[in-house]
Amino acid sequence: MSSQRNHDGLVLVGTRTPYEVRKFPTISPEGDEIMVNVKWTASTPLDLHQADGGLLVEHPMRTGSTGAGIVVECGPGVKHFKVGQRVFGYAHQKPAWKTHQEYSTAPEWVWGQIPERFSMEQAVTLPENLVTAFNTISTDLKLPTPWPKPEGYVPPRANEHILIWGAASSVGQLTIQVLRYYGYKHIVATASSKHHAHIKEIGASEVYDYKSPTVVGDLLKSAQGRETPAFPLIVDCIGSQQGTLAAISKVAQSGSTVAVMLPVIVKHASDESAPEYSLDASTAVEWAPGVNVAGVRTHFYWRNDLFREKLQTEIMPTLLEQGIVKPNRYRIVEDKTLLERAEKALNAMREGASGEKVIWRVSNE
Ligand SMILES: NC(=O)c1ccc[n+]([C@@H]2O[C@H](COP(=O)([O-])OP(=O)(O)OC[C@H]3O[C@@H](n4cnc5c(N)ncnc54)[C@H](OP(=O)(O)O)[C@@H]3O)[C@@H](O)[C@H]2O)c1
Where in this chain does the record put each Enoyl reductase (ER) domain (predicted)? Predict the structure, then answer.
């Protein structure tokens, strides 16, 4: 009789086709790996780009990049975790690591321990985009993120104005909180007006409504009297050709660096037609000469040694515990089965999440 253990996991089998549940082997951890019983996941726009746009997908593909759960087994070389601990992480690189399955087996460096006073539901709102925030600040804006942060640390470019476009997104909220932590004080943001109070509370000094027809003029006017470029560092937290880049290209001036969340959405999905994407933000719109455009690829954050070793095991739990980053607001999608919850969550993302994460249970119990 075979002793092989199996568990349920979601796969994408086609574009604009419902998920399927399949059985996968439950892999015992080796070396520095841990096995996590995944209790919760948070939907991301990438789930939608993959399901509806087939972005970078080879079918059939296991899905899920963010999870929170319980450690059930540890490899012999594991240093940070014990069986029974509650963990959260951004675990996406290999099929066995994915989080839309009951058990994920992955290296310990993609997980962190959840501080006691936070629930798994709160914790699961953070990992993917906290990693994105650090990676964007370091790799694309080229600002240092020293850890531990030295006492009295004053960052380079501390007095420059940083524009965070689409700040109500979870990327935006976490980027603002990490920039504030490192000492940046002139953070200017755009968001729908209903989110302005919250965005100020987490660290922006000024917030503008990106839906206002005068937003570009208002931003440039606010910078009158300053040296150019008005906004030397800009983060586009959305990456929509018409929805964000068209306006941002009018604010960016020679010398500005613009970090754009990829993919660039060239055409948004509708009931009748598939979305279209581009992975080149530098040609998506016409930029003023001298603007430096960087396309953010968080997928490769692990190439930074500090991030691989400490970002999730140490930095993420510490920032949460110390209240430096706050969990995102969230909405729970409930239903009887993994498949039903996953489909319902994807529909919630299609309708659009505003200022909140859509979270749902993976394992039934
Ligand atoms: N390449 C990478 O490494 C990487 C990593 C992470 C995320 N991303 C991408 O980054 C984007 C954001 O991800 P997320 O998880 O942060 O999304 P999210 O939290 O689901 O974003 C939702 C928010 O987006 C805002 N928004 C939508 N359209 C906007 C527009 N035209 N202008 C300004 N704000 C707009 C809305 O703001 P209001 O409520 O104010 O309307 C809403 O609150 C996604 O496209 C994702 O795929 C890329």
Answer: 5-360
